């Protein structure tokens, strides 16, 4: 047999093995007899997502809308990886709350030996996550979040100086809110003092520099190979910078006298049995990773919606001004508690533009759905399509309409608790949800109290999302006209 024949036969053999493996992977739900969306070769049911033609939120929404009411969940494939998409709010509640013990993992890629900062709360699973979670729950108590308010309001005052004294201007709102969130992270997660966080801000823009959705997918699908190849999720110079900052701040903090509690670093290292410094640094990075983009997106989307509905904007501002007047112009905890309408506005923003469009879990034990024949097998990946639930017309009438009244107490009570989960919930819910809500509210007060926002020629209407991101972010920066009001 000549060389050409051998090469052809080897190629044919390799292709047949590859084809068979793909077919076996894409036959998982059929073999289990579970209702599922018919997959396309290689792409499964997320065609267009990995190459940025479609947002993952839209792919999940279509499956949810197509199968809801037919079963508690449906099987689908993210390329070759089988996942369960939850369709029923009762099952969402079981997975997130009542039976959360079966779903304590996320199954994300993490490689602590090659990339120490990936050992953070968001990415870890198993006993390492459990230990960290217990420690972090001590940090993010309501009392501690309360203690951080004074520093937060100090930082938020930069919004006024950033807006300047011009009476009318066109502003890049995405940049404006990012400057505030980056300051909060630099100061509270990493302990950096002062106002000038330009270097820090530069690295927050760079750590995703090499991020490719398809590479992240491959690392998720083949974690052992990814670890062997030392795949890195984040740009190395950026993670080296963040680690250096956190470690040096921890050391500097020990040299200083005891100070009022103003940062997460202090809270972690003041614990009775403090964690190792590198582990604390990984948590600071995890906060950046988990918190920065959704905070920016939420505040940006909020101003965008208020700019388009001036009467809602005026109502929010009026409440803010009246409440501030009653509290001597100070943003105190009590003042924030009284800002009911502003909170409704923020919740409606998180409903309509859900920054995390889905929640991820991996079943750590087999879960039999009570009173049914359905079983979620150990190891199954589970997605809860929160964005699709938040836009389900059977739960939220006219879901595309921005209407903060949906979050009045009575309206909220009429819906099941699992109908609104922008921060997830239960064991693996957002550890910093209370802090994030406080940060959003303080930011909104500062943005609205002296300025009015309106669409301008550079505002993209309707909103377009960036398909290359898993989180929901605008495709291009949000720009609005800003008028100073005295
Ligand atoms: C608008 C802002 C934010 C939104 C919408 C948000 C949303 C979320 C969601 C949906 C999850 C997954 C929850 C689940 O799977 O049930 C999560 C997890 C997490 N978030 Fe947030 N988040 C925000 C801000 C923040 C901030 C500011 C921080 C840190 C200071 C933070 C730290 C974390 C961490 C550490 C986790 C992982 C928790 C764990 O797995 O134990 N988040 N967040």
Describe it:
By secondary structure, the protein is α+β, with helices and mostly antiparallel strands. It has a single domain (about 90-485), classed as Orthogonal Bundle (Cytochrome p450). The protein contains 21 helices and nine strands. The protein has helices at about 5-25, 30, 55-65, 90-100, 125-140, 140-145, 150-155, 160-165, 175-190, 200-205, 215-220, 225-230, 235-255, 265-270, 275-310, 310-325, 335-340, 340-350, 385-390, 410-415, 435-450; strands at about 75-80, 80-85, 170, 360, 365-370, 375, 380-385, 450-455, 480-485. Strands 1-2-7-4 form a four-stranded mixed beta sheet. It has a three-stranded antiparallel beta sheet with strand order 3-9-8. Strands 5-6 form a two-stranded antiparallel sheet. A hairpin with a 2-residue loop joins β1 and β2 (about 80-85). α7 (about 150-155) runs parallel beside α21, α9 (about 175-190) runs antiparallel to α15 and α15 packs across α21 (about 435-450). The chain is globular and about 85 Å long. Protoporphyrin IX containing FE (HEM) binds next to α15 and α21.
